[in-house]
Amino acid sequence: MKIALIRGDGIGIDVADAAMAVLEATLQKTGQPKPELDEIHAGAAYFQETGQDIEADGEERAEAADAIFLGAIGLPSIRHADGTEISPHLRLRDRFGLYAGVRPVKAYPNAPQRLADPRAAEIDLIILRESTEGLFYSAAAHKRSLVVNDDEVQDILRITRKTTTKLHRFAFDLARKRQNKGFQGRLTCVDKANVFTSLAFFRQIFDEVKTDYPDVLIGYNYVDAQALDLVRKPWDFDVLVTENMFGDILSDLAGGLVGGMGMAACAEIGDHTGLFQPAHGSAPDIMGQDKANPLAAILSGALMLDYLAEKLGNPHLSDAADLINQAVDDGFRNNRLRPIEFGGDMGTRAITKAITDTVSESR
Amino acid sequence: MKIALIRGDGIGIDVADAAMAVLEATLQKTGQPKPELDEIHAGAAYFQETGQDIEADGEERAEAADAIFLGAIGLPSIRHADGTEISPHLRLRDRFGLYAGVRPVKAYPNAPQRLADPRAAEIDLIILRESTEGLFYSAAAHKRSLVVNDDEVQDILRITRKTTTKLHRFAFDLARKRQNKGFQGRLTCVDKANVFTSLAFFRQIFDEVKTDYPDVLIGYNYVDAQALDLVRKPWDFDVLVTENMFGDILSDLAGGLVGGMGMAACAEIGDHTGLFQPAHGSAPDIMGQDKANPLAAILSGALMLDYLAEKLGNPHLSDAADLINQAVDDGFRNNRLRPIEFGGDMGTRAITKAITDTVSESR
Ligand SMILES: CC(C)[C@H](C(=O)O)[C@@H](O)C(=O)O
Ligand SMILES: CC(C)[C@H](C(=O)O)[C@@H](O)C(=O)O
Q1: CB neighbours (10 Å) of residue A326?
Q2: Which residues of chain A have pLDDT under 70?
Q3: Closest approach of A350 to chain B, Cα-based (Å)
Q4: Which residues contact B337 (CB under 8 A, 6 or more apart)?
Q5: Ligand 2 pocket: which residues have CB below 6 Å?
Q6: Fewest CB within 10 angstroms: A108, A201, A235, B230, which?
Q7: Is B249 within 8 Å of A252 when comparing Cβ atoms?
Q8: Do B200 and A84 lie within an 8 Å CB cutoff?
Q9: Using CA atoms, how far apart are residues B312 and B65, in angstroms rounded to an integer?
Q10: 3-state SS class at B335
Q11: pLDDT, tens only, A345-363
Q12: So what's the pLDDT on residue A165?
């Protein structure tokens, strides 16, 4: 098993190391060989040093691996001339067609709760964010703005039949898997089909795909109403599928309900490879200080193992993923995970050790 | 004073009538002449009957009035062939250049509270949503999609220097006014300047305009982080200025924190006229049943009076607006406003009467 490792900037380095430590401990526990890590340098600091945002052969080496793990990229102080940030990550999404951005949102016991309603403890949903097109088709990194001059700038929101069909199939398959795991498995298409032709098209394709999944419960919501509903009754939702920009906003919103970005795992999956990363940023103000919560990265590692189990046809990797997820769940339940950002006393290393210990001691 | 009245569809009719009743009572109380109402038929039901979404001379008559009041437009069952809804409202925003969408979000005492933190009772902020361009430049109603075929659709997000400069000036002026009213008056520019050239341009213009307002405290936030922050610490914000689509999402989100869309007033202001409307939809399922909460519409009426006070140079209208705002505030504080949607016993008419009574009895 070969992992391309991009630790990136700021706390990306701290949490990527944590995730790799947990990965190794878990593979060892389940009798699997050690993964081969190919570290690829990339990011804003690397850009400042070299003028390139990723090593010259970095993208090829990432492609050659079974999966890519990314810590975090970007430093607010290092920007392109137009004000946008350094983001080879966006190019990787584009180049590898990582259309399916999977963002689980789950309330862990004893993690901070924002909502007053006790049902908030039941929040357990997945936001599926399309991750290659939508408004991000026109991300500055791709140089596809339609008009750029001193009087106006026009960017493009693009919805294609090809990508959207794959996305919705992925969503329906995911909803079905959730049903088999005892969730309601309801899939909600989140768009703005009332106003935009592009997003009416997004919904139209959802309706085409749904005829192949008569067993999956579905719903529709406009993105503005969905933002409201995530505040009023997030426990009612299971899988949400949406456009790239909307998914970016809604997944941060939903993450905020249940402990914030320090718990926000993310998988970005394409036809041939997958990229796994915590959805949080590089938080340079606390880098290297043993303060970052590594759990989003560690949980992203579990998502990677689940992906590799299918890709490599090795069910032991799925067991390994379960071990990690269970360790996080148990750790919160037994109050053995107390991240600093939740007012606790455990830094990056202590959290990482608690997880590796639990995994190693499990039967 | 001449008001163009578009009651529209569904509960738009109920709440527009409520707002007009309160308006008349308040003007009478403050010794002002009765407003002249010019009712303009428009909306989805009108479209179904006539094939037009607004009366033939409707837009001209709206232009001729001092302000436009709108109930709500749209019926989910009546759509264009591409799946988008009937929305002459979008055309009015465009035609009259109603760039400044003012959406106050305020926690009233005894109104439902979603957040567990007691500071949520202090929420009192304004989202300024640009309302003519951004992604809505390409709303289906404007027929400006770049590509529309069976394989893909491309819509356009447009940011112009002209509109954005006006928007930011409006935002800084608003923040200054808030400062004078005892608020912190901090203005946050909400964008996605790290990723999109268009939104980096939006921020650049913010920075240009800010040099004229050295007294106004400012901040920046990316829209995804802002969605998270509205869940984690909405009490920290005062005025947010943002792109059209982002403002649509964030204002519903924020509205959800403090009682929902039944309290969501809205003003859309251009160089020559303003449109005032509750930000909620037409909720056809409860239309005509005396169930709708008219307070969003009534508070939008207060925003209209404030606007007209300046436009017509008549400070009594500002006093009238204060009377309405005070009546709503007192009503919640004294538990004399108990809307059905908050689990209370008061329908549209009872709420309206409570407000008109309070206004008429005030000294
Ligand atoms: C870093 C940035 C490009 C990225 C995005 O907006 O996609 C981030 O916000 C995320 O959510 O992964
Ligand atoms: C009705 C619709 C066109 C409108 C919008 O999206 O702008 C609505 O959601 C609003 O917020 O006023």
Answers
A1: 14
A2: none
A3: 26
A4: B295, B328, B331, B344, B346, B351, B354, B355
A5: A 195, 224; B 74, 87, 89-90, 248, 279
A6: A235
A7: no
A8: yes
A9: 12
A10: coil
A11: 999 999 999 999 999 998 7
A12: 98
Backbone φ and ψ for A353, nearest 5 degrees, come out as -65, -40
Q: What is the pLDDT of residue A72?
A: 97
Boundaries of domain holding A148: 113-258
**A73 CA → ligand 1 middle, Å:** 9
Q: Are strands A67-72 and A100-106 parallel, antiparallel or unpaired?
A: unpaired
- Between CA A127 and CA A133 the distance in angstroms is 16
State chain B's mean pLDDT as an integer. 97
Total count of domains within chain B: 2
Whether A205 and A92 share a structural domain: no
What CATH code is carried by the domain that includes residue A47? 3.40.718.10
- Write down the pTM of the prediction: 0.97
Chain B closest-CA separation from residue A224 CA (Å): 4
What is the DSSP track for B39-64? Answer: E--BSHHHHHHHS-SB-TTHHHHHHH
Task: Kindly determine whether residue A151 and residue B158, on different chains, have CB atoms separated by under 8 Å.
Answer: no
Q: Which residues contact B160 (CB under 8 A, 6 or more apart)?
A: A151, A152, B133
The answer to whether position B108 is within a domain reads: no
Answer for the pair B308, B317: CB distance below 8 angstroms, yes or no.
yes
Looking at residue A259, what is its pLDDT? 87
What is the whole-number distance in angstroms between the Cα of residue B197 and the centre of ligand 1?
A: 15
Instruction: Name the closest ligand to CA B131.
Output: 2
Residue B363 — pLDDT band, cuts 50, 70, 90?
A: confident
CA A161, CA A170: separation in Å to the nearest integer?
A: 14
Tens-digit pLDDT profile for residues B60-96: 999 999 999 999 999 989 999 888 999 999 999 999 9
How far is CA A333 from its chain centroid? 24
φ/ψ of B87, rounded to 5, equals: -145, 75
Taking the C-alpha atoms of residue A348 and residue A317, their distance in angstroms, rounded to an integer, is: 24
Query: Which residue of B224, B233, B235 is the best one to mutate when testing the A interface, meaning the one whose CB has the most A CBs within 10 A?
Result: B224
